Amino acid sequence: MPGSLYEEKVKNTIHAARQSSTVEVKLPGTRKPVSVAKPFPSPVDWRDHWIYFLMIDRFNNPDASPKTAWDREAGGRQGGTFNGVKDKLGYLKDLGAGVVWLTPVLKNRQSPPDESHHGYGIMDFLEVDPRFGSSPKDAETEFINLVNEAHARGLYIILDIVINHAGDVFVYKDKDGNIKNEMDWSHEVCSINWRDENGDPNLSWQVLPPSNLLQPDAAIWPAELQNNDWFRRQGKGSGPIQGDFCTLKDFRTEFTDIYKDKPVWNLLIRAYQYVIAKFDLDGFRIDTLKHVEREFALTFCNAVREFAFSIGKKNFFIFGETKGDEKDLAAYTGRYTHEEEGRIGADASLDFPLMWRLSPAIKGFEPPTAVEDVFNFRKKVQEDNHLLSTHGEASRFFVTFIDNHDEHSRFLYPRDGGDYSHQLTLALGCIFSLQGIPCLYYGTEQGLKGTQEIYWSNFEGKPEHVREALWGKANAFDPDNPFYTEVKEMSRIRDAEPALRYGRQYFRQVSGNNSDFGFSKETGGIIAFSRILNDQEVIVAANTNTRFPFSGWVLIDSRINDDNTVFKIAYSNYRTAGSVKPSSGDVRFYDRNNYRSDGWARRILVDLQPMEIQFLAPE
After folding, report:
1. Rounded distance, CA 373 to CA 340, Å?
2. Would you call 557 exposed, middle or buried from its count of C-beta atoms within 10 A (0-12, 13-18, 19+)?
3. What does each C-alpha distance from 557 to 473, 550, 591, 602 come to in angstroms?
4. Which helix (H) or strand (E) holds 511?
5. Which of 409, 251, 245, 388 is nearest to 323 (CA)?
6. Taking the alpha carbons of 483, 485, 491, 493 in that order, is the dihedral positive or negative?
7. In angstroms, how far is the first alpha carbon of the chain from the final one?
8. pLDDT tens for each residue of 55-110
9. Which string of DSSP letters, residue by residue, matches 330-373?
10. Alpha-carbon dihedral 364, 367, 368, 373, rounded to 10 degrees
11. Is 410 helix (H, G, I), strand (E, B) or coil?
């Protein structure tokens, strides 16, 4: 792999990406290879696809079992590989996924005790981590083959990347001369020693020697990053954009040289442009995006987007981990029309505000109106900040989810021993029907429910994270698993109903007596909303009560529907079938403050079992 951002290999790779070509890919079980365009073109609209997120080390290895028990807390590497992912691309395609999001693949520190199973501790920004290869020397080729086969199957690949920090590439020396892997925050720059090829601190390397004297596993690469000034060197964080993440060393991205240039910006931008060119990727998910200054975040996204355009990827997708409230997400997403620079941030953000309210609402800890509140506040933030949008809807700007790799328990967490399978499929139904691009965390479709430790009665604290080694589970990739079949059916319906992908969204009042209509403000109530696209309305109704059914009415749009419109149950997690016609007449409306108004409305009758969700679409 290249050792410099400006050597011929990098230049040639970037140049080659601008030349259209094809590659022939032989898929398992087929006779004729598939001809795949390179660079692989972007989708017209990313809302036409949903995302499957997997941790490479924890997903699959067809050649070996996990190194420890698959469902136990494991801070070290379990052994998942690129070939393990490639082996299951057909499984993911059949599930209905359109996009595979991979945890970082770039080289982490190789020597113990840093096993870096997650990939976020990068020490070489131009090389693939050899440990993800079935054979370490073939890792790069195996990753290229993975991407090529995904493209041959019509799947897109999004790579998780890091621009805020590097791996544990140096140690600190405190005032007493003690060596520390991590330090508490210091207001002054600290003394450091870079790590050698064995992962040990070299006490003579307070500043690195010339790169030609360094081994590939030492310090940090490419050579242009081997500069003390590019790192903050002040220990663990203070404030939103300052400091290390434990042992992960923070870049000093805001550093400005005597020419008023930003060298760290330029180096990271070029490194990731090379990664796109080399591996033909379709998008980036940016880790810890809000921890870099907003100016860099926007500049990075614009530079990557321009490069992607230059090689023919006209809709390269960038979404960020901007973990925070709506204002944080809005600051890093889309374009603010009142800003003169004209820069556009990330295309979307992971929808943490929705996840934080949707899960407790579905589990009966908060009322259904908590979900509506998310979208009402979101609309206000977007309006206040002049965020460029399309007819007021936000479906393209958010990646929605209920589980991820940073949580300590999955949504399916039956600690009391109860059966919450319908509750999980209700949650997934909401993700597949609310505004946003759905994202499914690996193993959800096989009923993973977290590591064993969280179910111990005497367990205190938290396990590392929910990162089970899926392939260690018996019948781990079962296409007949009930959760797999439910996700597959939801995906089919979402594909068939454009309103669920692009439609405007309206939360609906409900009634148990067909006369008094209001919003569910009590726990265990009804989540009801419409997705409307042009003259098509799809109704989604979900009963969050774990014990009692609901039979009642949901308001619909009276202008695009009449009393002869027939709504069929397009999806139910109980497999309920049937159809219904609306009725109309005088009713009483109650707003969130119980203010009453009288009027006329059209509505439909829904019958929901406990924890049932239905999608009702016009025939």
Report:
1. 32
2. middle
3. 47, 22, 17, 7
4. strand 510-511
5. 245
6. negative
7. 57
8. 999 999 999 999 999 999 898 999 999 999 999 999 999 999 999 999 999 999 99
9. HHHBS-BTT-TT----BSEEE-HHHHHHHHHHHTTSS-THHHHH
10. -140
11. coil
Sorted by sequence, the CB contacts under 8 Å of residue 50 that are 6+ apart come out as 96, 97, 98, 99, 432, 437, 438, 439, 440, 491, 494
Locate 203 and state its tokens: 């006490």
- pTM for this one? 0.97
DSSP 593: T
pLDDT for 105 equals 98
Q: How many angstroms separate the Cα of 412 from the Cα of each of 94, 254, 451?
A: 23, 42, 12
DSSP string, 434-466: SSSEEEEETTGGGT----GGGG-TT--S--S-S
Structure tokens at 62: 């067809």
Write out the two tokens for 546.
């774990």
Strand partners, 498: none
Burial 51-81 (b: 16+ CB within 10 A, else e): bbbbbbbbbbbeeeebbbebbebbeebbbbb
> pLDDT tens for residues 116-149?
899 999 999 999 999 999 999 999 999 999 999 9
CA separation for the pair 571, 245 (Å, rounded): 44
For the cut 90, the answer to whether the pLDDT of residue 30 exceeds it is yes
3-state secondary structure 93-151: HHHCCCEEEECCCEEECCCCCCCCCCCCCEEEEEEECHHHCCCHHHHHHHHHHHHHHHH
37, amino acid identity: A
Nearest CA to 350 among 289, 409, 410, 299? Answer: 289
The widest CA-to-CA distance across the chain, in whole angstroms, is 84
Tokens of 243: 């400091």
